[in-house]
Inverse folding.
């Protein structure tokens, strides 16, 4: 900041205030991690005794393991559902001149505006006739639908004018639209598609409300079990699971950042 | 062949190419719209239809006859009215807290060089990447009677008895503010970044002190982003379920929980669906008001980068 | 090794394209000879880029036909037209090297590896970028990028080459250098080329023939010299060169302009309004009152001349407040009255008298 837009004294106040808010944001998000290594049933910070017992409990309990598997499967399926359909829709609406473009875009973005509780309740019964209630694929499709707007918006933003012109160039050189898309356009929006996949995966993994209603009994997802367990008693195992989820989320995002930086770096070689 | 016959042939073939061209154009349009169909179908089948079904359901009473008794009930019975007022109160409180906490932060970040700001924004967005449930759980641990905050406060001698911070309204508001802040700061930060600082410089050259320039120039320019963030947070709060359910301890019943309770505890599908429709209607209403205010606040401004 | 053997001609017939109420192309017909360098020249909105896009196949016209050689292609999809295209911004594939960019169309056509390497090397030599195969796209300068784009567009021996303002994003010196290179390349390959530009200097220096377009219609098709010396109407005259158009009125055996009567010249169609085309190079400043046969004279008042380095620009205010520009070489002496707002005459040789009708709306 070159100009003294805000007075010196006020500046320090602002910095401290921001520091407090950031502290408020970050610390509760990650404080569970060290606490999960606490040896006693009462989670403490800092832990008086360090132990892996809650992790062992998590891995050792069949229900938790099953729930984890279910969550991972659904997350993977959700990615396979949301990313191709969302990318195709983003491309289609970018390339088309139809009068319905606006309407379709609106429909595709609408899931972000509808409270999830409504979708959960509605699907609770609507999936029955479709023979999809309480099935893996049913919940995966629901998660795919929830995350579709993110894919659509992200890939739409990524499809710049430059990308469309290079696609025209490819077509002028003899590539059909399909071929041009896969060999020229897609590689250029790789980052956005990849990021979208990451968002879909993590969002599906973390999703609670739909799982609550749509995945009962043996199909319980990780989050559902955690939620129910929270309402009944505070099971410290949840701390361990939470820590794993936190680290997983952060790791995935960091990995993605590194991968992206790596690509930028190699371009400059 | 004579010139006029040539022309006639040319005209005839031109007409046929015009037809072929029209057909091609139609086909291309259809293929492109077709590409977007799987996505649209997914949304229609998994959201529009179920929610529509819910709406349909709300119009019938217990005996199966069409009636508005469900709506009458939710707008007259105390429990439902309470859930409306709690929802509104919590949403408003959280929104105001977000503004108070988030505006200065967004402002500072928008003043910093991009690299530093990017790093700090990553810190702001960090909570977003961790699951809502996990964070809510963390707050539970922090805020409960035997939780971290009470322990330390007692240890430091600040209080003699544990404060009731969890399983009530306070805990809910704290937790939800934590969840909503990233949603508020991000768009506001983006909006503030795009305000050209040349205006502040101009104000200074005209004799305005930094504080005055801030309040009279910068803040009005940022109002659009502020409104956008606020309405977003408010709308998200209205429909929220997880955090009030866990941190409310059964004492905070917002609309989402009321809907869930109607089904799981009372099997009252009529009330649940009517509440659902009411929630959706309120969501749309708030968004519409937000959009209207956004339009009214719109003023053409130059200088994006 | 030859890239092109004989390049076919292009026949464009009755192309029309409307966007809503606006006609981007209005019954456009044009014949381009095989091996010709044809430039489409016009202001923005004239339809020149639309016409190029229609030729390429990216914009579908509402009606009309395009025949390349003997083949009608207006319903053929773009990737089957075998047309090379160079865009305004280089449109090179950023995730590929120079080699892969140029090899792309060859690989699509199933050309063998050895032949690909040979062809790529050959075209890189043609655009004077030997050895650039391994470079990445973001390592190229603007001029180099466009050269690679040209190389890529010709390597698969297309029937015709289309260029959409390829040099407009480059700075002046680079532009002029590449203009010369592109023209030289054309002379070597004899590839039928359609070139779009809004820069008249570019059009004049590079083309075999120029098509001047306005409002979706063809205004005039002729060689550069033809368009310059015999513009078809006031629009074309104004578009090419520095031109002042002065309305004339017809009287007796000739016409009146700027207070002077010129005898012995009549327009082809008396019905439309006509203008006298005055170009700074054709009008000379001379002493007031001078007369000579074969010249017509206008009287006026000189204003301060503008020194342009090699030349001097005089601006003379004539009858009715009309300012006429006259350019003379700096080393030639000008009449003394020019220096100080004095009365001067402007003279125009009778052979340089050029009348043009008003362009249709």
């Amino acid at each position: 900041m070159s100009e003294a837009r805000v007075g010196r004294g006020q500046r320090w106040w602002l910095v401290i205030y921001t520091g407090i808010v950031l502290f408020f944001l970050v610390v509760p998000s990650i404080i569970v991690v060290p606490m999960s290594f606490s040896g006693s049933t009462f989670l403490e910070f800092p832990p008086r005794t360090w132990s892996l017992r809650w992790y062992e409990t998590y891995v050792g309990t069949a229900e938790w393991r099953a729930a984890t598997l279910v969550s991972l499967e659904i997350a993977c399926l959700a990615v396979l559902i949301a990313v191709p359909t969302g990318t195709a829709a983003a491309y289609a609406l970018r390339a088309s001149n139809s009068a319905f473009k606006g309407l379709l875009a609106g429909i595709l973005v609408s899931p972000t505006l509808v409270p999830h509780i409504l979708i959960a309740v509605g699907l609770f019964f609507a999936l029955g006739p479709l023979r999809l209630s309480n099935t893996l694929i049913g919940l995966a499709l629901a998660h795919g639908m929830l995350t579709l707007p993110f894919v659509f918006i992200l890939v739409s933003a990524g499809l710049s004018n430059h990308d469309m012109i290079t696609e025209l160039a490819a077509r002028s050189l003899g590539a059909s639209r399909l071929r041009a898309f896969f060999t020229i356009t897609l590689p250029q929006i790789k980052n956005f598609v990849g990021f979208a996949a990451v968002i879909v995966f993590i969002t599906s993994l973390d999703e609670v409300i739909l799982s609550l209603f749509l995945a009962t009994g043996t199909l319980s997802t990780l989050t559902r079990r955690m939620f129910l367990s929270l309402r009944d008693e505070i099971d410290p195992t949840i701390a361990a699971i939470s820590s794993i989820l936190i680290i997983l989320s952060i790791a995935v995002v960091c990995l993605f950042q590194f991968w992206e930086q790596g690509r930028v770096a190699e371009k400059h070689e | 062949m004579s010139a006029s016959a040539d022309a006639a042939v040319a005209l005839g073939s031109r007409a046929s190419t015009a037809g072929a061209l029209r057909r091609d154009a139609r086909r291309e349009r259809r293929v492109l719209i077709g590409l977007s169909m799987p996505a649209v179908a997914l949304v229609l089948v998994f959201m529009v239809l179920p929610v529509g079904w819910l709406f349909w359901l709300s119009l019938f009473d217990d005996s199966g006859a069409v009636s508005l008794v469900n709506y009458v009930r939710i707008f007259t019975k105390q429990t439902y009215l309470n859930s409306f007022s709690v929802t509104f109160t919590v949403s408003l409180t959280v929104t105001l807290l977000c503004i108070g906490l988030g505006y200065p932060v967004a402002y500072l970040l928008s003043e910093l060089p991009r690299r530093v700001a990017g790093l700090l924004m990553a810190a702001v967005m960090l909570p977003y990447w961790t699951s809502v449930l996990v964070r809510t759980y963390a707050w539970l641990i922090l805020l409960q009677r035997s939780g971290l905050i009470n322990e330390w406060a007692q240890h430091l001698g600040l209080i003699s008895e544990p404060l009731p911070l969890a399983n009530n309204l306070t805990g809910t508001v704290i937790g939800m503010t934590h969840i909503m802040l990233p949603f508020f700061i991000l768009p506001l930060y983006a909006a503030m970044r795009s305000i050209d600082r040349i205006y502040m410089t101009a104000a200074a050259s005209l004799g305005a002190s930094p504080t005055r320039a801030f309040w009279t120039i910068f803040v009005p320019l940022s109002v659009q982003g502020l409104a956008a963030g606020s309405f977003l947070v408010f709308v998200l709060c209205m429909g929220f379920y997880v955090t009030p359910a866990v941190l409310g301890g059964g004492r905070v019943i917002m609309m989402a929980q009321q809907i869930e309770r109607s089904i799981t505890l009372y099997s009252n599908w009529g009330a649940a669906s009517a509440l659902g429709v009411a929630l959706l209607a309120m969501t749309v209403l708030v968004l519409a008001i937000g959009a209207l205010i956004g339009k009214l606040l719109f003023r053409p401004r130059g200088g994006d980068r | 090794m030859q890239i092109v053997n004989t390049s076919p001609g292009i026949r464009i017939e009755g192309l029309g394209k409307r966007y809503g109420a606006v006609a981007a192309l209005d019954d456009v017909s044009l014949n381009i000879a095989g091996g010709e360098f044809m430039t489409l020249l016009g202001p923005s909105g004239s339809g020149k880029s639309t016409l190029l896009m229609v030729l390429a196949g990216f914009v579908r016209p509402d009606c009309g036909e395009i025949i390349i050689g003997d083949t009608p292609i207006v319903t053929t999809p773009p990737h089957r037209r075998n047309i090379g295209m160079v865009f305004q911004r280089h449109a090179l594939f950023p995730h590929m090297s120079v080699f892969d960019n140029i090899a792309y169309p060859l690989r699509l056509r199933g050309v063998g590896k050895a032949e690909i390497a040979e062809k790529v090397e050959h075209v890189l030599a043609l655009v004077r970028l030997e050895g650039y195969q391994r470079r990445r796209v973001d390592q190229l300068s603007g001029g180099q990028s466009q050269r690679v784009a040209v190389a890529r567009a010709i390597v698969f021996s297309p029937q015709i080459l289309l260029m959409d303002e390829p040099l407009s994003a480059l700075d002046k010196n680079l532009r002029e250098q590449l203009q010369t290179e592109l023209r030289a390349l054309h002379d070597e390959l004899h590839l039928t080329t359609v070139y779009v530009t809004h820069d008249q200097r570019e059009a004049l220096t590079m083309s075999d023939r120029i098509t001047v377009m306005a409002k979706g219609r063809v205004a005039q098709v002729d060689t550069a010299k033809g368009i310059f010396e015999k513009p078809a109407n006031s629009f074309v005259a104004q578009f090419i060169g520095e031109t002042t158009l002065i309305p004339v009125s017809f009287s007796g055996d000739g016409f009146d302009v700027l207070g002077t009567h010129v005898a012995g010249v009549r327009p082809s169609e008396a019905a439309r309004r006509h203008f006298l085309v005055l170009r700074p190079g054709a009008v000379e400043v001379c002493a007031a009152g001078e007369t000579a046969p074969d010249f017509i004279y206008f009287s006026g008042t000189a204003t301060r001349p503008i020194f342009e380095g090699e030349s001097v620009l005089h601006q003379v205010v004539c009858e009715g407040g009309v300012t006429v520009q006259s350019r003379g070489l700096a080393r030639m002496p000008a009449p003394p009255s020019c220096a100080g707002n004095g009365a001067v005459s402007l003279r125009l040789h009778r052979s340089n008298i050029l009348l043009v009708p008003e362009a249709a709306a």
Q: What stands out?
A: Chain B has a mean pLDDT of 85.
